[in-house]
Design goal:
The chain is built from two helices and nine strands; from the N terminus they run E-H-E-E-E-E-E-H-E-E-E. It is of the alpha+beta class.
């Protein structure tokens, strides 16, 4: 069995699509739009076959990020090396994405940086 994709509600569909394409080399499909419901989506595909669906509803509620809550925790991207973690972390920080912690080696051996995307969704970069 394999996870098909992860879906993420966003406020700025085009901006978030561009963010993941620019910084994570995602490739987007054509936008899907359901005129009856107002739903708009993109599927973003990554080099290893993983997919992220960005979803936008006209009335999507604002999120209230809390560090420990049930549900979505973070998206982790394996970037290949400590040097690449550091470089992408610096690039994202310069683009305005807050670094929450790291770089550090976790208790389970990951070299990681925790940060958020432009809408406050938690991301991890791991070697």
């Amino acid at each position: 069995m394999q996870i098909s994709h992860i879906a993420l509600y966003v406020h700025d569909l085009e901006g978030m699509k561009e963010f993941y394409m620019r910084h994570f080399a995602a490739k987007a499909n054509s936008q899907y739009h359901n005129p009856r419901t107002g739903l708009r989506t993109y599927f973003l595909s990554f080099e290893d076959g993983a997919r992220l669906e960005l979803m936008h509803w006209p009335d999507v509620a604002p999120s209230k990020p809390e560090p420990r809550r049930a549900g979505y925790g973070h998206l982790a991207f394996r970037v290949g090396s400590r040097e690449k973690v550091d470089a992408l972390s610096a690039q994202l920080s310069a683009a305005g994405c807050p670094v929450l912690s790291g770089p550090r080696v976790t208790g389970d051996g990951y070299y990681e940086v925790s940060l958020t995307d432009p809408e406050g969704n938690s991301l991890e970069l791991v070697a």
